[in-house]
Amino acid sequence: MSAEKSPRLLIVRRDNIGDLVCTTPLIRALRARYPGAWIGVLANSYNAPALAGNPDLDEVFVYTKAKHRAPGEALTGIFWRRLCMMRALRKMRLDEVILATPASQPRGVKLARWLKPRRIVGFGAVPGLDVSLPLATAAITEAEDVFRIAQLHGITGAPPPCRVLAPQGDGKPAALTVAVHISARKPSQRWPVERFAQLMRRLEAAPAGHYGSDVMPPSGHKPALKLRFVLLWSPGAANSPLHPGDDDKAEALLAMLGAGFPVAAARSETLPQLIAALSRCHVMICADGGAMHLAAGLGLPVVCLFGDSGAERWRPWGVPYRLLQKPSRQVADIGVEEVAAAFNELRADIPTPAP
Prior knowledge:
Layout: E1 8-12, H1 17-21, H2 24-33, E2 38-44, E3 59-63, H3 75-90, E4 96-99, H4 106-115, E5 119-123, E6 131-133, H5 142-147, E7 176-181, H6 193-205, E8 227-233, H7 247-257, E9 263-267, H8 271-279, E10 283-287, H9 290-297, E11 302-306, H10 311-314, E12 321-325, H11 336-346
Parallel strand pairs: 1-2, 1-4, 2-3, 4-5, 5-6, 7-8, 7-10, 8-9, 10-11, 11-12
């Protein structure tokens, strides 16, 4: 497939938010390789908002998984809309379907075959693939693994940064604003709410020229600025069977910080609301998860806490970061001092807010 042509490419990524964000470097590279191509993505209603406004895409096709349907929404309606979407894709006479999840996907191949493209690209020895990349054996990031597909199009070099588009608005505030996301799906990724409060107080109380510790910043580091915080969390009750949330945890944290503390609570009910809140911040502190990758896609430096997950695989891509992970693989074993020190180290990479 030559660069002179204008192929019709469909990228399939039907899993989680972070997985889709880690596919945006491939999308960016394909757009640069084929400026006149039609490039689309097949995603689901859960992860698709991460692509809103992406200039590298011509269209995003979205379907709803049964487990994500709205209360009272009939399964028959979901399946009918999915069938109509698949028929529309089949009529497009696609040149290539890219199964971008770097794993064996027999069901994905079956779906792609039904669309009747000229060729299907994917990973693993799955019957039905026209071009198959071997599963990775080296320790590489998700973004790098997905990006191996680029070599099939003559694209070399490292992946570009991930890309998530900020909504149009007022831009970032003048005060250095720290996003603090307190939620994590896996128990091993959860940090006690008391430590979030201690960390935020410590960072906020640092006098000018200090970094929240008892030592002066190293030579060449920027002087500390007065901080403001945006508190983020997964909304809902902790006992919700479908979408457990951290409303109680956020309320407790705000009570610990007390009135007058420079924090804004941003209860994001939707992914676009979360992206909008992150876009107004300068740096992120969070556990590994989709919000971390969204922050990286928005260009935010990240302090990330890893529990029982692969840090080398899922670390932020394309932005400065500091990663903390204990041998126990439990985020609860990470101390406040360690997170404060990581933030201090990262401070030199945080853009100074515009006055």
